[in-house]
């Protein structure tokens, strides 16, 4: 993207947005839409800077009508059998507008991810949607396409991850102690995973939406309840069993915490370290007690582990705010934003209390006692069924919150939320504009290959500290139920930096070495200077 086009993008972006008021605290909030017609329970950014969102088809009619003649017909629907309103939308980040999309089956509590070609593949759901595979292509007028029996097993509360070979693995789900793959061009069956039955607590579960990350060796780190394994999914073999988190408290749905794979660094080294951070959740028994009207304080700890160590151990850290049902978003500069959620209770219908309005920033490279920072609060509670994703301009899009079985706007503690907000991390403050890089080359949508030198040209108008220039790549995540599937950040570093004329610098980096480090697909590429990221550009890793 040229300097001029980047400048025009910025003008159009901010001209289309409501006014934001700056505050003295770190970070600020902006209300983008008072209502998009649905409650954003699931969210995915696509390569055209549009975000696909959806809730469920048995909430009852939404406030956003479908085009004439389009309706969802389900005789088993307990809310309405014929529904001519939307339960999915496409939000255009640039124009701050949205349009209705049509789903023909129930997408409630489903999972998904973006394939290497940029298409969103979404799997499972509830009732008539539990065996469905749905595909959404990023184009001006595209809509959902559904395959009725695309799955081998019913998937509800499952987790997806994109694999180095271009497929997605679908792990678990309610009553499903197994995994399978989509598309089914290699393996059409399910594969048993006893770990999921071992971590399942009777009548409570505490192991749904498992946290799944692709390790640098090509195996899958799978966390459920309070412990994890490393799975060789090709040979259906557990190759490592990790210890329980100290204290043994559950971190998986409905005792919902969140997790991220921390930024991968030193990618050309002989040995690459991979670390996982799990934050928040609810103490054991919280779900049952919440059903009885007793709301237990959420967990205020994070647990961090180097999953590549020969003898890995969890290290506990204390958050400044207890949090259940929080979301964790990797920011372009490698820091982690912890956002949304409640201070007490559990995931489930009306089982959370005391919204956590303040996001918290986690700085993984700081000393352990100085890694957390409380940020500026929103005024909109984001409880059960909230979402958050990173945008190309560095903002974080926040939506959803519906702790009710239907749309419910009055007479309840936390009404169904149809709004969209943007959180502006502190690095977007205008005082950093002279330090902020602007990417001149390559152009957005450029293709890049594995293990190749990549040259990036940037403009920085202020004083530059060359050793504090770095390049990062972020894979946009599928976010639902406090977990961002396929979220991944790679630090490409800066192998060589040279000044090239006034305020212009050329940076040379090496692209990732294999699909184990970065599965093929579309990534956001950023240049970071003194922790201040540029606006991202899309690159296609092939």
Characterization of this structure:
The protein has 542 residues and is mainly beta. The protein has a domain at 433-541: Immunoglobulin-like (Sandwich), CATH 2.60.40.10. Helices cover 4% and strands 36% of the residues. The protein contains three helices and 44 strands. Strands 7-6-3-2-37-38 form a six-stranded antiparallel sheet, with no helix packed on it. Strands 34, 36, 39, 42, 43 and 44 form a six-stranded mixed sheet that branches. The chain has a four-stranded antiparallel sheet with strand order 1-32-31-30, with no helix packed on it. The longest helix has 13 residues, at 3-15.
What layout of secondary structure does this protein have?
Elements: H1 3-15, E1 28-33, E2 42-45, E3 50-54, E4 72-73, E5 82-83, E6 88-92, E7 97-101, E8 111-114, E9 120-123, E10 133-136, E11 145-147, E12 159-162, E13 168-171, E14 178-182, E15 191-192, H2 194-198, E16 211-214, E17 220-224, E18 227-232, E19 237-241, E20 258-261, E21 275-279, H3 286-291, E22 301-306, E23 315-318, E24 327-330, E25 336-339, E26 342-345, E27 352-355, E28 360-362, E29 372-374, E30 386-390, E31 396-400, E32 420-424, E33 438-441, E34 446-448, E35 453-459, E36 469-475, E37 478-480, E38 483-485, E39 488-493, E40 496-499, E41 504-510, E42 521-529, E43 532-533, E44 537-541
Parallel strand pairs: 34-44
Antiparallel strand pairs: 1-32, 2-3, 2-37, 3-6, 4-5, 6-7, 8-9, 9-10, 10-11, 12-13, 13-14, 14-15, 16-17, 17-18, 18-19, 20-21, 21-22, 22-23, 24-25, 25-28, 26-27, 28-29, 30-31, 31-32, 33-35, 35-41, 36-39, 36-42, 37-38, 40-41, 42-43, 42-44
